[in-house]
Write a structure and sequence with these properties.
This protein is an alpha/beta fold. It has a domain at 149-181 and 278-448. The chain is built from twelve helices and 24 strands. It has a six-stranded parallel sheet, covered by helices on one side. It has a four-stranded mixed sheet with strand order 2-12-11-10. A four-stranded antiparallel sheet has the order 17-18-15-21. The longest helix is centred in the last third of the chain and has 20 residues, at 389-408. It is globular. It binds flavin-adenine dinucleotide and iron/sulfur cluster.
Amino acid sequence: MKEPQVISFNEVDQKELEFDVVVIGSGPGGGLSALRACERGLKVAVFEMGPGLKTKDFVMDEATAYQNLYQEAAGRTTLGGEVTILQGRTLGGGSAINWTSSFETPDLTLRTWQEKYSLTHLNRESLKGHFEKVKELIGVATWEIPPNANNELLAQGLKKLGVSYASIPRNVRGCQNLGYCGFGCPTGAKQSSFRTSLARGSSLGASIYCDAFVKKLLIKKDKVYALEVCPRTAVLGEAPNNKVKAKTFICAAGAIGTPGLLLRSLVPDPHNSLGKRTFLHPTTICGATFKEEVAPFYGAPQTIYSDAFIPRDLNERRPGYKLEVPPIHPLLLATSLPLKGKQHRELMKRLAYTQAIIALQRDGFHQESPGGQVLVKKGQVFLDYQLTPYMQEGFKRSLLTMGEVQFAAGAEEVFPVHRHGEKVKSWQAFKNQISNLSMAPLDLKVVSAHVMGGCAMGKEPKESVTDIKGRYHHLENLYIRDGSLFPTSLGTNPMLSILALVDHLEV
Ligand SMILES: Cc1cc2nc3c(=O)[nH]c(=O)nc-3n(C[C@H](O)[C@H](O)[C@H](O)COP(=O)(O)OP(=O)(O)OC[C@H]3O[C@@H](n4cnc5c(N)ncnc54)[C@H](O)[C@@H]3O)c2cc1C
Ligand code: SF4
């Protein structure tokens, strides 16, 4: 499929534009909503604040990728710096830079939404056809190539301990197993939204504007009548805004981006619920060095996972976590290690022999993990997110699990990614270390690449932000179509769930 035609907003000189449907954000949610509207014969435009970079522009360079393709050059954090947040800010949003792991929504998550949030229309049966359709669209398939050593060591450790694991389906076509997914796939194998839904949307006539920052929704009575848009590079300058009128407005600027835009636009919010309950899958990291080379920068980044530590029961008190591995590239490792001087240098020297596991903790399933709140201050968007003692207890358990797996896989040394973390050579020494380490914010390194919630769907306006079709409760023609719709986190990587939900809502 031919990649979409893109217009840079820097080149647009009309002061007023008009469409049937405008979509804000070009990630999985925005791309698919735009395609469905085009298929209905509507005049559609997409506004994306990031640059219009495509396959030929990806140069396999880590620093360039973070600068060009990530929100805040990959330096976004929660308000107090407790969690580092990775999000896409480019044509295709997160789908352009993600690691291609493609999971369906877990059963327990759907059951929680049915029983606690009255979302009875979202169940395995009602979503089945939508998952099939979106898997076909983005090429989800079993990964047949053997895992790289980083993933293989996770499998080996789990196998030794008798813990279940499986391989991860990926959304690629003709993948060459390079490992550069996080910097934009240079071969076009990754089926991001600009290679799939936006490409088809463009061929059906959608106008796709990049470098186009949507500042505000303009509201009259109970309807949105226009967007105020400016070139991204002029956000802080005095550049005049362009007006974009439409009949229907679809917000798909991602969790944080969507509630941020709505708050900045002063949309009616009588129950003060907008931007609350934003979730992150707060993620802990455990590193290990091996005698043999691991080369964790090569090969498909995520191909093995374990859900053995995710609760099976609706009333389980513990948060639970999914185990996966991250690709390890020099800049990401250097900036993730909260260490100084010699210790930092020594670990960096051993990069090629380093393996890491991540534990993605579920948030939002228990009253002691209520998620964070999106705030807007002087037009800038922030996420205030507290790592509660309940979550900290889960972090400690997750580090113990990961360390045990790494020693079982034959690690020479294991280290928690923590400000006071030390490399140790035995499982007993690791257990002693973890029991004495504080899990307090800023001591333990916590990261997230999965932002969800903040505009939860629901039946009651008092308890939700949109209705069960994803329409904003208090404005007639405003719809939300991204990961911010989820009432809890998912407990798994979100892309495929976002696509299936959007497909379901568009019917
Ligand atoms: C490094 C990394 C690895 C990941 N790996 C995986 C994985 O393997 N599997 C998986 O399922 N998920 C993965 N994810 C997460 C997944 O990519 C996201 O959950 C998904 O992309 C979210 O989709 P979305 O439609 O909600 O929003 P996004 O993809 O975040 O898209 C929103 C878009 O809106 C734009 N935008 C925001 N505000 C404005 C504005 N005011 N005006 C105009 N445009 C705006 C943004 O620039 C962005 O491009 C990963 C994410 C990252 C960062
Ligand atoms: S492993 Fe390489 S070829 Fe495959 S999707 Fe990732 S970047 Fe593209």
